Amino acid sequence: MNKPLVQTVHYRGKRAQPLSNVFIHAPTIIWVEQGYKQLWWHEQSMQLGRSNWIVVPAGQYLTFVNTPEQKQFHSRAMAFNLQPPAEWLQESLSDNEKISHAFPQIATTPQLEYCFNLVSDMLDKGLSLQAQKQLILGLYAELREVGALDLLFPNDQKMVRDKLANYLSSAPGDDHSIEAAASHLAMSRATLTRKLNAEGSSFREVLAEIRMNHAINLLQRNFTQLDTALACGYQSQTRFNQRFKQQFGLTPHQYQLTL
């Protein structure tokens, strides 16, 4: 299955939404357009609103509280499946360690906001693949202009976990097998298992994290808990509820009460 070059998800709430260990499987920009996001990052904390973007590379975990303003919270998360030109990334490779611990936020500019909205709005316009690429590259160019592209793409060597997560996220609820995933990544099951172990991960762990992120998106769209569990590949709602709380620190019902 061919993935879209970019995916945008809206998140809304009427009460505070505390979430822990939210796995970011693709380079993502989060724009809080109403309310605030209290974000913790490497023992730092910051409250971010409309004038700042959260710019997160693939493979990170976020812990935060979404806080409504005037009983409304709204953010857009834009995940990218298109790499920038290699020469744009090469400029910053020597700064990777510094970038990995930098607080993942930048101040917005009218130019950045314009490009973000262009990319977000293009998704339902029926544009050709090439036209979509050019608009995304325009946003990357503006990020590069303000020195923030390397926050989104800190290096050109993706971890195996991130490649696996990108593959699984195309259909989180499918009955995925490690053999099929290994074949897609052009390696044997044993090699995939070994490489994931070396990165401190496993096939089942990555699949569960992708499914939990999908669950949040479905609950945002008013799916019931049972329908969400089934759509995420769980036959038991009880098991789904346990895994959701283990991942995020609250139950699906508690999360629904904030929507």
Give a structural overview.
The chain is 43% helix and 22% strand. By secondary structure, it is an alpha+beta fold. The protein folds into two domains: 1-156, Jelly Rolls (Sandwich), CATH 2.60.120; 158-259, Arc Repressor Mutant, subunit A. Strands 1-8-3-6-9 form a five-stranded antiparallel β-sheet, with no helix packed on it. The protein has a four-stranded antiparallel β-sheet with strand order 2-7-4-5. The chain is globular, with a radius of gyration of 18 Å. 32% of the residues are buried. The model is unreliable at 93-99 (pLDDT under 50).
Q: What are the defining features of this structure?
A:
five-stranded antiparallel beta sheet, single chain, 259 residues, globular, 2 domains, alpha+beta, 12 helices, Jelly Rolls, Arc Repressor Mutant, subunit A
Overview in brief:
Helices cover 43% and strands 22% of the residues. The chain has 12 helices and 9 strands.
> Can you tell me the overall shape?
globular
End-to-end Cα distance: 32 Å
**SS-derived structural category:** alpha+beta
Query: What's the average pLDDT?
Result: 92
Query: Which architecture name of the largest domain does CATH use?
Result: Sandwich
Which CATH class of the largest domain is shown? Mainly Beta
Going across the major beta sheet, what is the strand order? 1-8-3-6-9
**Strand-residue fraction?**
15-25%
Strand count, sense and barrel status of the largest sheet are:
5 strands, antiparallel
Structure summary, number of beta strands? 9
